[in-house]
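User: Hi! Is it possible to get a structure for several chains at once, not just one? Here's what I have:
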Amino acid sequence: MAFTIAKLADAGGVGVETIRFYQRRGLLDVPKRNSGDGPTGGARRYGQDDVRRLRFIRSAKTAGFTLEEIAELLRLDAANDRARARDLASARILALDAKIAELQAARASLSRLSKACARQQGGPCPILDAFAGD
Amino acid sequence: MAFTIAKLADAGGVGVETIRFYQRRGLLDVPKRNSGDGPTGGARRYGQDDVRRLRFIRSAKTAGFTLEEIAELLRLDAANDRARARDLASARILALDAKIAELQAARASLSRLSKACARQQGGPCPILDAFAGD
DNA sequence: CTTGACTCCGTATCATGGTACGGAGCGTAT
DNA sequence: ATACGCTCCGTACCATGATACGGAGTCAAG
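Assistant: Yes, the chains can be modeled jointly so their relative placement is included. Here is the combined structure:
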């Protein structure tokens, strides 16, 4: 239940440097050092909660949130700011719908291109016009 | 029918600097100067074909190709390399399908989150768990 | 025949999201 | 008690896709 930074990185599927990067960006906080009996103190320890946050960050990135926005979402969670959270979610849903439609159109174009280029020789394989009409 | 770089940029919906950037990256070629009667020659002129390429670049980017890959596609078009073009298209279709599925899952999660956070007070608004199960 | 808009080109800078390096310190197993 | 591996931290660097800057040249209108 107490992770070193390397274990946390493993559990979250990221690298150690990424953890530190997220800490600098305010997405993860930096726990107190373990035992302050040396000039610099011991290693920092992480818990299950940090794993949760890390996984949230991964998913939120996939959803298209920027790290900046993810930092805000994490603050909203702490503050229990439902309204703002809902707004961010709604805005992202709209953006996702647009993005999905865009990708589906691109997919259709590529599918057409692929078919056209299938015939060995003869017939067109108009790469430059693949997206005509998009 | 003869564009200056600024007109080309307009027609392609990009900035002048972007055109030059694409030229450096080999996505667009650099036409000969117009009239070589000065120490440096006149301005370069662009045609409808450049507009076509520029639009292709835009669409191909949307489809998720990198500029590197787009440069290759443009070369393939010139070389009429059907097989390779088809391979690139197929690979991209697979990647697009994966991406679309991912975005749809994210959308569903956000939709759930948005609903949960809708109720003013009472009930959960579990931002951190929004993507649980993804 | 000058002014103003545009071009050319090299180089620098930006934003995003990391990844790497290097010199300390610390802690655990042998 | 000493060596090995991990940690800490600052700083530097990377890739991608642009975007900006500055000085010089050019061109067309007034």
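The radius of gyration of chain B is 23 Å. Residues 82-118 of chain B form the longest helix (37 residues).

User: Great, thank you!
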